[in-house]
Amino acid sequence: MAAEDWATAAALPEQVIPGLRPEPVKAQPCMVTDTPDHQFVLGRRHRTVVAGGCSGHGFKHASAIGEAVARTVTGEGSFAELDFLAADRFTG
Ligand SMILES: Cc1cc2nc3c(=O)[nH]c(=O)nc-3n(C[C@H](O)[C@H](O)[C@H](O)COP(=O)(O)OP(=O)(O)OC[C@H]3O[C@@H](n4cnc5c(N)ncnc54)[C@H](O)[C@@H]3O)c2cc1C
Fold this sequence. Notes:
Blueprint: H1 3-16, E1 41-45, E2 48-52, H2 62-74
Antiparallel strand pairs: 1-2
Bound molecules: flavin-adenine dinucleotide.
């Protein structure tokens, strides 16, 4: 991984722990599924229930996403207004 990829992050530990060597021992690229509006994709497309596009912040919402998916699959009503997460909102 190129130094410029972690240079910004490397400045932080030094501010918090003076004397700490800034170069990471190990660096690993990772992937997040980003959407144009950085909101999740959640909903039914025909017979398929889609959940994803968490844009780097899905972990903390996992239980609510799971509940919403379960309710979509079982046909139970949603516990909140989730139309803003509709799977077809980018297809016009
Ligand atoms: C480094 C890093 C730090 C993050 N930090 C935070 C944070 O602090 N807070 C936060 O809220 N979010 C954070 N996130 C984002 C969070 O991890 C994701 O938003 C969340 O995990 C997305 O959930 P997901 O179910 O869409 O995808 P994933 O969690 O990626 O789950 C997808 C699953 O599908 C499986 N899979 C893939 N292909 C197939 C296939 N063909 N068949 C069967 N299974 C398959 C994969 O093995 C994986 O288990 C971070 C992400 C990264 C990478």
